[in-house]
Specification:
The active site is at 107 (proton donor). The chain is an alpha/beta fold and 476 residues long. The protein has 16 helices and 12 strands. Helix content is 45%, strand content 16%. β6 (226-230), α8 (234-247) and β7 form a beta-alpha-beta unit. Bound molecules: nicotinamide-adenine-dinucleotide.
């Protein structure tokens, strides 16, 4: 078989950008200005570990500074390279514009397999990497605000924030220098689940529009839909768990790095996750068939496919065999530009990454605002809201007594209605609103323009127009 030439991840993003921009009427030169990555900083640093010096390579790429700070995660993986961080930084620009998070796009990465190092070693490495970035304002509450990505989480963010504080002892806003921190270090409720929760909200919004559901050949609600998910990490685990527990989806397949689990009757996401935490593998999980060829399960018959692990997994080699009529890109760049074309021709509907996984940056935005305002959301208004609700409940209770058996308050109403919204409820409400509005802005273009036949192009059109407007407002 002849090998198919697949574009690199960055080339793939550029190709998708070019498809969209060809439908726009931008002033000469602005298209190029938006597309290119402004700067990529590469650092090599040594850390003394296990009796010798180990040299690590890391990157922080800034794609667009039309708004500052710039924002984007830091990834720990062996595959990290300049092409990848630049592609991811570009996606961050478009993502932030689409969901109206007031940031430019950035991304970082460290070439490391975090599983090879002990926790105290990872702390030394992370602090040293952060030191290099902080020195150059590549971590800074006003200029560049990282967040977790593959291989990093709350723990790494707490180390980075602490490192920034040590180097900037008088910066009262130091906590806003990274997001995705633990609650006790300035984090926000609901950030860990945010990206997976956003995937759920995106699907809920998609299924509110019958015309869009019909475009996939599916019908009805999310209830009972058969879902295959790839990657049971932060994003995949939360998305699959919420879809199963709250929307009635049946998770028929889970693909991980060491193969896939399959059960047509449905897998218990929580149980699989627990098994993975305990055994460090999905192998041996009861009540499912395990196949060593994990990627083949991407091609399984299902209603919704959720790639939530890494880029390039649906490519020109396997695109024609993908059966799912609806793909939601929970990971960044899981479908290559070539595969995108094959799938579009087949009529597969793809909810694109820049929208589908924007829940993370949206709640990161809330966390950043919380850190800058130095107050938890809901602290001022919650009790006042409860007092006003109490007035209505008192009136209803009077009515209840007056009408006797003719009318009774529903069980649990009083308790539910009385409770003012805490931080978690407010975060979820803000995220839900963001995902609904962003989807509607995409679908308006998708259905409103004859020359736009897919959601990805629609998403690019919406976000590029916003970035272009910012540049024009700056006089460019
Ligand atoms: P993670 O490290 O928590 O999880 C990734 C999971 O994928 C792990 O369970 C890993 O074992 C699995 N995996 C790795 N290689 C695999 C393979 N070849 N086949 C199947 N599974 C494999 O990472 P994450 O934070 O969940 O990120 C996943 C994706 O979502 C990435 O593309 C990331 O850029 C994107 N994303 C993450 C966030 C966030 O908030 N964490 C936000 C937006 C986008």
């Amino acid at each position: 078989m002849t090998a198919i030439k697949e574009p690199s991840f960055r080339e793939s993003v550029d190709l998708m950008f070019n498809r969209a921009v060809a439908l726009m009427d931008l002033p000469p030169g602005l298209e190029e200005k938006i597309r290119v990555c402004n700067a990529t900083y590469t650092v090599r640093f040594g850390v003394r570990l296990r009796g010798q010096i180990h040299t690590f390579t890391g990157y922080r790429s800034v794609h667009s500074e039309h708004m500052e700070p710039v924002k984007g995660g830091i990834r720990y993986a062996m595959g990290v390279n300049q092409d990848e961080v630049e592609a991811l930084a570009a996606l961050m620009t478009y993502k932030c514009a689409l969901v109206e998070a007031p940031f430019g796009g950035s991304k970082g990465g460290l070439r490391i397999d975090p599983r090879e190092w002990e926790e105290h070693e990872l702390e030394l490495i992370t602090r040293r990497f952060a030191y290099e970035l902080i020195k150059r304002d590549l971590i800074n509450p006003a200029q560049n605000v990282p967040a977790p990505d593959m291989g990093t989480g709350e723990r790494e963010m707490a180390w980075m924030a602490d490192q920034y504080k040590r180097m900037n002892t008088t910066d009262i806003n130091y906590r806003a220098c990274v997001t995705g921190k633990p609650i006790n270090a300035g984090g926000i409720q609901g950030r860990v689940e945010a990206t997976g929760r956003g995937v759920q909200y995106a699907l809920q919004e998609f299924f509110r529009h019958l015309e869009d559901v019909a475009a996939t050949g599916l019908s009805g609600s999310l209830d009972g839909k058969r879902v295959v998910v790839q990657g049971l990490g932060n994003v995949g685990y939360h998305a699959a768990k919420f879809l199963q527990e709250e929307d009635g989806c049946v998770i028929t397949g889970i693909i991980e790095r060491d193969g896939a689990l399959y059960n047509e009757a449905g897998l218990d996401v929580e149980a699989v996750h627990e098994w993975m935490q305990k055994h460090d593998t999905i192998k041996g999980f009861p009540d499912a068939t395990h196949s060593a060829e994990g990627a083949a399960v991407l091609e399984a018959d299902c209603d919704i496919l959720i790639p939530a692990a890494m880029e390039g997994v649906i490519n020109m080699q396997n695109a024609a065999r993908i059966k799912a009529p609806l793909i939601i890109e929970a990971a960044n760049g899981p479908v290559t530009a070539g595969a995108d074309e094959v799938l579009r021709e087949k009529g597969t509907v793809i909810i694109p990454d820049m929208y589908a996984n924007a829940g993370g940056v949206t709640v990161s935005y809330f966390e950043w605002v919380k850190n800058l305002s130095h107050i938890r959301f809901g602290r001022m208004g919650r009790r006042q809201e409860e007092a006003r609700h109490q007035l209505i409940v008192d009136e209803l209770q009077r009515l209840d007594q007056h009408l006797g058996d003719a009318w009774v308050m529903s069980p649990g109403f009083k308790q539910k209605y009385l409770r003012g919204a805490g931080e978690l409820e407010l975060v979820r409400s803000g995220l839900d609103d963001t995902m609904r509005i962003a989807y509607q802005s995409m679908r308006e273009v998708w259905h409103g323009r004859k020359d736009v036949t897919d959601l990805r192009t629609a998403a690019y059109l919406v976000s590029i127009a916003k970035v272009a407007a910012s540049y024009r407002a700056m006089g460019l």
